[in-house]
Amino acid sequence: MTIQEEQDAIVEEFSYFDSWDDKYQFIIDLGKGLPMIDPQYKVDENLIRGCQSRVWLHASVEDGKLWFTADSDALITKGLVSMVVRVLTGHTPKEIVDADIFFIDAIGLRSHLSPTRSNGLLSMLKQIKAYALAYTLKNQTS
Amino acid sequence: MSHTLNIYEPLSIEAIRAEFPILQTTVYGYPLVYLDNAASTQKPSVVLEALDEYYKTINANVHRGVHHLSQLATDAFEEARRKVAAFINAAHDYEIIFTRGTTNGINTISSTFGRAFLKPGDEVLISAMEHHSNIVPWQMACEYYGAKLKVIPMTDRGELELDEYSRLLNSGRVKIVAVTYVSNSLGTVNPVRDMIRQAHAAGIPVLVDAAQAVQHILIDVQDLDADFLVFSSHKIYGPTGIGVLYGKEAWLNKLPPHEGGGEMIKTVSFGKTTYNDLPFKFEAGTPDMSGAIGLKAALDYVDSIGIDRIQLAEEALLTYALDALSTVPGIRFVGEAEHRAGAISFLLGKHHPFDVGELLDKQGIAVRTGHHCCQPVMDRLDIPGTVRASFSVYNTPSDVDRLVAALVKSGRMLG
C-alpha cells in the first residue's frame, strides 16, 4: 500500500466510530498492543523529547527503504505513534520526504499535530522526515 | 485595603461566575470546567471593559505628552500603580515597578542584584520547589558572576526542610534568598514570613515569588517584610503581559537599572546618562498602559469580593476537592503539605499524566499535565509529571464532581 492508501485505510477505520470515547479507546488499545520497539533501541539517543510525553524512534534501512519502530511512555501518544509508523514504514526516503500526513487531521486529532500540544508526535514526524531526507542526500552524494 | 466585608458572609459563586463570559462556553459539547487557574485565570467583564474603555477613550503614551489624552492615560496608569501599592500594602507607590510578568520581575532582580552584589564564591539560595522562572535567572546570574546556586531541599510530602534552610542560610556566603510563596506544582504554602525573618537575622535580603499566592492569600509586603516580591497580572484575573515587581525603596535604590531607554533616563548625553528616580528607573520604554489599567480593574474586582472571603471559599473548595478526589480509584496525590493553596497535583494509577489530561480535555475539563515548568520537582519525586487541578474563586463543588466523574471514566478507558 502507498502512504496515501494506508492513510485512507486508517481514516476509514475511524469512520466507524461515532463518539470521541470510541475513537480514543481504539487508540488506547493500539497503544497497549505489542511492544513496538526492540528494548535495545529504547535508549536516550533515540529519544524525542516533547513537553508532555516521550517518544523513542529507531530507523533502519533495508532494500533502499526506511523501516521504523517506535514507542512512547504515554498510551495515547503510543497509539498515534503506532499509526504513524504503520503509514510511513517500509517506504523509500523520497516517498517519506514527499508524504503529506493528513490522517491525524482527518480522524479529528488535529490538536496532536499542533506545536502547542507538543506531545512528541510532531517532533517524531519531523524526525522521520529528517531521517528520510538525510538518506536521500546520502544516496545522491554516494 | 478592604477589610470591611464580613468574611463569613458566603460568596455567591453563581453570581461570580456570571461575571466571567468565557465560563459560559462549551468544550466538545460539554460546559467548560476550567481548572487550570494556576497557569492563567479567566477575566471578569469589568477587566475586559476596562481594556476596551482604555483604547476607546484615553489611549496615548504616558509621561511624555502635554496633550489631554496623554495626561488622562498618565493619570490612569499612575492610579493603577497606587492601586497595586495599596493592594499589597507597599509603603510607597514608587516601590511598585510594572514588569511584563513574574519572570521578567525575577530576571530584573537577578541581573541587577547580580551586577551590584554577586562575586565569585557567593551563594544564592532558592528552594527545591521553584518553577523554572525562579531557577534559571539565578543560575544565569550565578554562572556569570561565579556564584553558587544552593537549594533548600524538600520532604516527600512537598514541604521545605526548614532546619536545612537555617543551616544553608548561615554559611556566611548567601547574598540573597529567592523563594516561592506557594508552589505551582504542589500547592504548598511556604512559611515565607518566618523564612524572611531568619534571613534578615543573617543580614540577607529575600525575594518572594508570589505568582501563585497573590490571588489566594492576603499579601502585605510590610508585614512579610519582603525585600522584593513579584507576581503576574494574568493569574489574578487581570490581562496578560503585565506584572509587578515590588522592591523596598532602600534596595531598589542600591540596584542599577535593568534596561536602558525611555522613561528610565533623567538626562542623556553621549558622554553620560543620569537615571530617573524610582519607579521609572526600572521602567524602560513605553510601559503596558492598558495592562496596568486592566490590572487595576482586576484588583478592584478582587477587593469588591474581598481576598479574605476568596481565601475562605477556596480553602473550603480545596477541602471538598481533596475528599472527593480521594474516592477516585487509583489516585495518588503528589504533594501533601499541611498548608496548601490553589492547586492539587495527582497521578491516576500508573497512567501517564498526558493520557489522563487528554481524556479529561475530551470531557470538557481543562487541567494542566506535565512537569509544570518544575522539572527539578518532578525529578526529586521521580515522576514524569502530574495532573494538576488548580482552583479559582469561580470554581464550584460541581466542577469538582465533574472532574471526579471524568477521572473515573478516564481510568476505566485507560484500563
From TrEMBL, chain A:
Pfam families: SufE (PF02657). Residues 11-130 form the Fe-S metabolism associated domain. Gene3D superfamilies: 3.90.1010.10. Belongs to the SufE family. This is Cysteine desulfuration protein SufE. It comes from Dinghuibacter silviterrae.
Automatic annotation (TrEMBL), chain B:
Residues 33-403 form the Aminotransferase class V domain. Its cofactor is pyridoxal 5'-phosphate. GO terms for molecular function: cysteine desulfurase activity; lyase activity; pyridoxal phosphate binding. Keywords: Lyase, Pyridoxal phosphate, Transferase. The keyword Transferase applies. Signal peptide: none annotated. It catalyses: (sulfur carrier)-H + L-cysteine = (sulfur carrier)-SH + L-alanine. It comes from the Bacteria. InterPro entries: Aminotrans_V_dom, Cys_dSase_SufS, PyrdxlP-dep_Trfase, PyrdxlP-dep_Trfase_major, PyrdxlP-dep_Trfase_small. The keyword Transferase applies. GO terms for biological process: cysteine metabolic process. Its EC number is 2.8.1.7. PANTHER family: CYSTEINE DESULFURASE, CYSTEINE DESULFURASE 1, CHLOROPLASTIC. Belongs to the class-V pyridoxal-phosphate-dependent aminotransferase family. Csd subfamily. This is cysteine desulfurase. It comes from Dinghuibacter silviterrae.
